[in-house]
């Protein structure tokens, strides 16, 4: 286990019965070819548990490995990367050996939706292609499922949006469409890498609220990378704090923000102007 400074993480993870933990990762190492030769270890013995149905925030300074952690879970690391883990449990089942072939039931949302969309392809086609990857049904049904995904993310007039090109949508609508696309892959685990950083504050709040709502409606488990501790306080149940490719602290947001154990967590919290008021962790 990597949690050198703090004992095993918290109530949410430690006290949960095995069936309540969706994903348990033990000893994840990732290294990449360095830019000036050699190898760079970007994740170093990372271990954590993701309780089912929770929203888990991942915080830490730039370069600490947050994106690489999500990419390692998705199996979409850069060329030349190696990924190794001691053990991965999904719903208590050891899937370590089958992982390279059978990916986790996860879908990912990126900071910039344009990285997920081909600018020359209409939104509708992006969505129906995902539907077709998962089921063989008629065209009408495929279209309806895709359109319903836009409704699920609260896009008004989904039929109109189906016929639009990505650049014709506002940033917030594009982000919603990307979330719709992720949902169509029917993930149990939704991974979001700074999904609102590029958006203005009002839209950010709407997208975060949407993620929280979708979590509840679809019994999703959500991992969300953010550099904004206020976001963690507002929408996350649990938090992982990363530094230099390791998890230095993890636990329920309420506990970690109230009594941070690792000096780095304290530093992060102290750097927030005006401090943090934790409202999450409590019942929502
Ligand atoms: N394609 C790449 N090739 C080599 N090294 C990389 C590559 N992408 C990232 N790295 C390195 O991997 C480490 C972890 O990067 P990562 O992108 O996961 O950080 P992060 O925590 O997501 O940072 P940020 O908050 O800036 O997004 C960094 O040291 C980074 O320089
Ligand atoms: Mg990143």
Question: Can you offer a commentary on this structure?
Answer:
The chain is α/β, with parallel strands linked by helices. The chain is 35% helix and 24% strand. It has 10 helices and 11 strands. It has helices spanning 10-14, 66-74, 123-134, 139-152, 158-162, 171-184, 201-218, 229-235, 253-258, 263-270; strands at 21-33, 39-51, 55-60, 82-84, 87-90, 93-94, 106-109, 189-193, 221-225, 238-243, 246-252. A 6-stranded mixed beta sheet has the order 7-8-9-3-10-11, sandwiched between helices. Strands 1, 2, 4, 5 and 6 form a 5-stranded antiparallel beta sheet that branches. Helix 4 crosses helix 6 (171-184). The longest helix has 18 residues, at 201-218. It starts with 9 loop residues before the first helix and ends in a 14-residue tail after the last helix. The site of adenosine-5'-triphosphate has 14 residues, from strand 2 and helix 2.
Fraction of residues in β-strands: 15-25%
Helix content: 25-40%
- Spatial gap, N to C terminus: 31 Å
Pattern of helices and strands: HEEEHEEEEHHHHEHEHEEHH
> Which whole number gives the mean pLDDT?
90
Number of strands: 11
Sheet/helix structural class: alpha/beta
Ligands, ions, cofactors: adenosine-5'-triphosphate, magnesium ion
Largest sheet: 6 strands, mixed
Please tally the helical runs, counting DSSP H or I stretches of 4 or more residues. 10
- Over the alpha carbons, how many angstroms does the gyration radius reach? 19 Å
Globally, the shape reads: globular
């Amino acid at each position: 286990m990597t949690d050198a400074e703090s004992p095993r993480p918290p109530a949410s993870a430690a006290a949960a019965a095995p069936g309540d933990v969706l994903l348990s990762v033990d000893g994840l190492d990732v290294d990449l070819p360095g830019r000036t030769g050699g190898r760079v270890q970007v994740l170093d013995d990372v271990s954590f548990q993701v309780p089912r149905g929770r929203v888990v925030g991942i915080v830490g300074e730039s370069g600490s490995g947050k994106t690489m952690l999500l990419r390692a879970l998705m199996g979409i690391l850069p060329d030349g990367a190696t990924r190794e883990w001691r053990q991965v449990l999904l719903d208590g089942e050891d899937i370590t050996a089958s992982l390279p072939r059978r990916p986790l039931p996860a879908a990912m949302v990126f900071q910039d939706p344009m990285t997920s969309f081909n600018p020359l392809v209409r939104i509708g086609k992006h969505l129906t292609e995902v539907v077709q990857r998962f089921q063989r049904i008629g065209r009408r049904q495929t279209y309806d499922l895709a359109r319903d995904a836009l409704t699920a993310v609260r896009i008004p007039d989904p039929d109109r949006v189906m016929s639009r090109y990505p650049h014709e949508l506002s940033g917030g609508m594009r982000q919603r469409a990307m979330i719709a696309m992720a949902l169509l892959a029917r993930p149990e685990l939704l991974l979001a890498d700074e999904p609102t950083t590029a958006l203005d504050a009002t839209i950010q709040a709407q997208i975060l609220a949407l993620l929280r709502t979708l979590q509840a409606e679809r019994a999703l488990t959500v991992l969300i990378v953010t550099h904004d501790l206020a976001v963690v306080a507002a929408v996350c149940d649990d938090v992982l704090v990363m530094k230099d490719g390791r998890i230095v602290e993890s636990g329920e947001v309420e506990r970690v923000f109230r009594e941070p154990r690792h000096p780095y967590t304290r530093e992060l919290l102290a750097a927030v102007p005006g401090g943090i008021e934790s409202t999450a962790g409590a019942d929502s």
